[in-house]
Amino acid sequence: IPQCANVTAPLFLRGDANDDGQVDISDVQRILEKLFLNANASIPCPKAADANDDGRINITDPIVVLGQLFIGNAKIAQPYPQRGNDPTPDTLGCY
Asked: How far from 32 is each of 38, 51, 90, CA to CA, in Å?
């Protein structure tokens, strides 16, 4: 059985649900679209949409992003504000 050596997880930016390299209102829109309008909406890296790093994509995630962008009181979990590796394991992935 061949073994995979040096396999690393993809780098991602938490909060960047549309994977355009920045966290902005369009990411909030993408998460809300996924949750309420179209369960098949494309989120290239579900880990990135999980803004609070609780292992789920839910209504809390766009609220955290909005809080970070407009109020500064909610904190997007790491890796933020730069791309990086996920410091906590969960079932969400990046495609």
From this structure: 9, 13, 21
In tens, the pLDDT along 49-76 reads 999 999 999 999 999 999 999 998 779 9
Q: What is the pLDDT of residues 29-53, one digit of tens each?
A: 999 999 999 877 889 999 999 999 9
| Nearest-5° Cα angle at 78, 17 to 84 | 80
Q: How far from the centroid of its chain's Cα atoms is residue 95's Cα?
A: 12
User: Rounded distance, CA 82 to CA 71, Å?
Assistant: 20
20 touches 12 (CB < 8 A): no
How many C-beta atoms surround the C-beta of residue 92 within 10 A? 17
Strands (E), the chain: none
